[in-house]
Amino acid sequence: MSSVTPRRAAALCALLALAALAPESAPAATFVVDDTSTLPYDTNLPMRWRDSAATGGRQMSSEIEGATVVTLRLNLQPWLNRNGRVYLALPQQPIGVVNVEWSTQGRMLPGKLQSGQRTLVYAGPIRSPFLEDTFSVRVVADGRRVDIAQRLNFQFEIDVD
Amino acid sequence: MIRDVTRNAAGSAGRLRISARAARIAIALAVAATLADASAWVLTINPGARGAFLQVGVGSYSGFHNSGGTPLDNATVNTVSVAVPAAQVGRGVAQGMTSNSTQAISFYDGFTVCTPPTQVYVGGWVRRPGSGPGSGVLSVTSPASLTSGAQTIPFTQISWTSTALGNPAADIPAGTFTGGTQALRTIAANTWVENCLTFSYANTAVAAAGTYTGQVVYTLVVP
Fold it and tell me: Is residue A9 a part of any domain in this protein?
């Protein structure tokens, strides 16, 4: 083990201290947003086979789709008076690619995403503790891979400056 | 290594290390609290419904499939017939049959596929969620004979050809009734199969005058 001088030791300790404090003062960090006030919070979505894709022939679509309306309420209290970017994320799914598309009432951004991705729904200063909007959501999945009910656990994430 | 540093460091450095550890713990608790509070908004998607559709002759659909239409029940049983001139009976000259079907279009998209009454539309599809075996089996069952009182004509006297306008390869093969159940083809999940059948009477059997009738039943079985 190499020897360490007292001055160097002090400097190392100071660096360690700064490193330990770093997460709290990092210029940008991602956090999971509390969305437990969303209504309905757990939606059971009936799915129907999509109309045939325009692929010619007599092939019928193997995709299923469903739609619902949900009032999202995000608790941004921890980041009040900071600038942030809020994303809607959906992890990769065992049933393959799931496509999600939504429109909003204007408080948040409309958009779409594929499972395994995240999409920006809000960017700017956080001036109120809650960010709320009504989403009209449409989900499309491969019906050949959905033989039992599948829970899609969406997540809102925030990047704060 | 950190222990060595502490042992050799000045008192202030030791206090820094302690405060750093405290900060680390505090941050860890804060993150844990955030994760505990936040949980995922959930949408539970359900499998698409199992389903099958079979149409022989005239059928019903709410609109067309490619624009959101869905199947409707139709109890019509169409008739295919031929009147064999007395001079021709049993001479082996095949007699074309005609039907009372009026079904010309496909409910897939409204395209005209058949020319009734000569042709009889036969089509169907299978829907099945999941990745398991999804094919349906289309079959037809015919009785042994057409009957007129006690008189009979073997059902094997009746054959069909198969075609569809705009579809050069027949989905349903041509054939001859066997007087039993015969498989016509499998229908893969999410595929619309359709053809127009043209029936003919072989006319090789000498039969007494009369009206001979029999009914065949088409069946689509989904696993």
Answer: no
